[in-house]
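ARCHIVE CARD
Drawer: 12
Card no.: 0347
Subject: one protein chain, sequence and derived structure
Cross-reference: see card 0346
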Amino acid sequence: MGFSCWPGSSSKRSEERTSKNISRKNKKNDISSNKSKPHVQTQASSDESKVSAYESVRKEEVAKDDQLSVDVKKLNLDDEMSKDGKASKRAQTFTFDELTAATGNFQSDCFLGSGGFGKVYKGFLEKTNQAVAIKQLDRNGLQGIKEFVVEVSILSMMEHPNLVQLIGFCTEGDQRLLVYEYMPLGSLENHLYDLPPGQKPLDWNTRMKIAAGAAKGLEYLHVKLDPPIIYRDLKCSNILLGEGYHPKLSDFGLAKVGPSGDKTHVSTRVMGTYGYCAPDYAMTGQLTFKSDIYSFGVVLLELITGRKAIDNTRERGEQNLVAWARPMFRDRKNFSRMVDPLLQGQYPVRGLYQALAIAAMCVQEEPNMRPAVSDVVMALNYLASQKYDSSSPVHSSRKSMPSSAMNMDDDEKPVSEYELDRR
């Protein structure tokens, strides 16, 4: 029987990453330059197999004092192991032969895209009758063993409907591969920009659904995990879409354990994607949960406007999305000009104002002025529940956000004056 592979929507575009130096504690740290990873994916398996993400790559050259080692210890991965040594989520270990068979020897028909980690292929696991996405580490790529360990470590302790699920990994010989659930609709950026002829743009309801789902995934990382995690790489290409445009956050290679106790931040080398990286983090190297909130605000702006975070093809004053949007927030007469033209006017006016208010608060320059993720979730859940019906003669709901999340009583306020709870 011949091998068959059903390629999903392929994305081979890459993103520009930041590449500049900052000085901290008399040391120079490079801002990492990474390309986007179009189709990164995951899922928990019922098969039992012994796994220790840290132990499986211990033979790699990881220095004792490497920050990664500290992070893995902080993740308390050993506590996630049951007494018989099996991972709590039972992530499978695969042989390289199994993954070679799943992708037909990594044939071109199964190729989904490439990024800083390496190439991504669609595969099919015969023994579980399951379509998967397989990331193969590029030994010469921009990401490597450190990111591999972080991703396996973090995904092995997480399970949430808005996070891609890890099925397993391969560490045979010098091979490093990650196996995720397959997300058939690809990344969010594939549905916002450079649409091919015949592809229908996302409608307003779908955009709000995606925003709300992504926020829930971020809330899980910040609030419900112990220890909490700072994502550090939130962007459209890392939001993957399943059936019904169900969003899931992916690619956790840059994630960091968040501050605990009386600590307010984590000092680290600045890494991320230009246009999404919070300015306070980029300047100081001090990473906080509010750094992720800024990145989320950029994504929300992209969903509303249909503009890229950074677009060098636009006029000089419009190349940076946040810089372009901030002065527009001051006058509600500009709001209709900010909406994605592909929506063709099919959106709720009131819902637009509220969505812009959330985005405006998230991209505040001062991190302590940005809202808490739980309040963002509450506000976006409300917006997602208010379904827009284009056949309705007037769909400009006079209802306002739940008062605990947003003060929207005054229709004459510019977006910059709307307030989210910033606890």
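Annotation on reverse: Confidence is low (pLDDT under 50) at residues 7-88, 407-412. DSSP finds eleven helices and 16 strands in the chain.
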